Amino acid sequence: MRERVQRVWFRAVGAGGSSRLSLLLHPLLYRWSGGIGPLGHFLGNRVAIMTTIGAKTGQRRSAPIWIYPEGEGWVVVASRGGDTRLPAWYHNLRANPRATLQIGRKHVDVAAREASGEEHERLWEMVNNAYPGYAYYRERSGHHIPVLVMTPEGPGAAKLGAEADQ
Fold first, then answer.
1. Most buried by CB count within 10 Å: which residue of 1, 42, 58, 147?
2. 3-state DSSP assignment of residue 135
3. What's the pTM?
4. CA-based angle 19:21:26, to the nearest 5?
5. Degrees (nearest 5) of the Cα angle 145, 153, 23?
6. What is the pLDDT of residues 75-121, one digit of tens each?
7. Burial class of residue 88 in the structure, from the number of CB atoms within 10 Å of its CB (0-12 exposed, 13-18 middle, 19+ buried)
């Protein structure tokens, strides 16, 4: 019974986080509030707004994502709540790996790269410890879920990365 309740919960969290309404409103409210309260932390996970350049349109696209500190950067998971499709931001980053993370009121330019092999497995275990729903999402989607490493860029990038986590 407990596993069934967890699956329902993980599905609800995934559906809510990847809904069109959430993708529209969350970035607006996050920017307005500076990521205070549940807009900046949800289920113990740090929320950021990631802005990418659309792979097809060339337009700026923003989406709320959960980030996990890793060294001087962050890890993000392209799960889309267990959907069979990957999130649009993942395709955008494959076309152009440059993005901006808004973490609270700080903006950090980052470069994305996809983890593979042993690094992917290590990071996958790390994010699953933070949110066990990712394992359910992988099972539900039936495909490999990409894990990306976001590394700060530009002058003082390491300092920016550490400060933004606070």
1. 147
2. helix
3. 0.77
4. 100
5. 45
6. 999 998 878 889 999 999 999 999 999 999 999 999 999 999 999 99
7. middle
